Amino acid sequence: MEQRLSLVTLGVRDLPKSRAFYERLGWRASAASCEQVCFFQTGSMAIALYLTEELLKDSGKSDAMPVAGGITLGINVPLRDDVDRELATVLAQGATLLQPATDTPWGGRTAYFADPDGHPWEITCAPMFPLGPAGELSLP
């Protein structure tokens, strides 16, 4: 099996509201989107927004066993100042601050926010992980 992550699906309570949040961030919905699901191309990956109850049904999970427990989604940025700039942008669009931007012991900078459905996102500058021309993460 190839070492790859192609799609992250987020269960959302209100698809139009969640779609609008990401579009306010400047993300463009794919033409593959419809009333039931919204897709966003994110470099070499994609994010899908899908109603939580449909995601639970599709995955065979119940409300007692959430689909997305213990997961954070990450956005790597090339410069330390980009962490603060990107955090300010998402907060202005309705995100909830989880952790303010702070310097890390490993020489980077990181912050955490939650989207309208509570999915935790990390914005980080990790100098040891260079980014390619399309923003793709390049692990050593």
Description of the molecule:
The chain has 2 domains: 1-62, 2,3-Dihydroxybiphenyl 1,2-Dioxygenase, domain 1 (Roll), CATH 3.10.180; 71-132, 2,3-Dihydroxybiphenyl 1,2-Dioxygenase, domain 1, CATH 3.10.180. The chain has 3 helices and 7 strands; from the N terminus they run βαββαβαβββ. The chain has helices spanning 15-24, 52-59, 80-92, and strands at residues 7-12, 37-42, 45-51, 73-76, 96-103, 109-114, 120-125. The protein has a 4-stranded mixed sheet, covered by helices on one side. Strand 6 (109-114) and strand 7 form a beta hairpin. The radius of gyration is 16 Å and the shape is globular.
Number of domains: 2
Strand order of the largest sheet: 4-7-6-5
How many individual helices?
3
Q: Estimate percent helicity.
A: 10-25%
Low-confidence stretches: none
CATH architectural label of the largest domain = Roll
CATH topology of the largest domain: 2,3-Dihydroxybiphenyl 1,2-Dioxygenase, domain 1
- What is the general shape? globular
Largest sheet: 4 strands, mixed
If you compute it from the alpha carbons, what radius of gyration comes out, rounded to the nearest whole angstrom?
A: 16 Å
Give the ordered list of helices and strands.
EHEEHEHEEE
Number of strands: 7
Category from helices, strands and their pairing: alpha/beta
> Distance N terminus to C terminus?
20 Å
| Strand residues, percent | 25-35%
Task: Supply the CATH class of the largest domain.
Answer: Alpha Beta
CATH superfamily of the largest domain: 2,3-Dihydroxybiphenyl 1,2-Dioxygenase, domain 1
Overall pLDDT confidence:
86
